[in-house]
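Late entry, written up from scratch paper. The run itself happened at the end of the previous shift, but nothing got recorded in the book at the time, so transcribing now.
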Amino acid sequence: MIAFIDDHRGAHGVEPICKVLPIAPSTYTTMSPSAAVGSGEAG
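Output as recorded:
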């Protein structure tokens, strides 16, 4: 599921994808090593 979100987050965003999948956006950002890449967050 993380890979699916990684593949589609550029077109749709993480939160809209997570609304239709059984995963919280916070779980995605915790589990995905690529979640912070290109997100615009300093860190």
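The two ends are 24 Å apart (CA to CA).
(Scratch paper discarded after transcription.)
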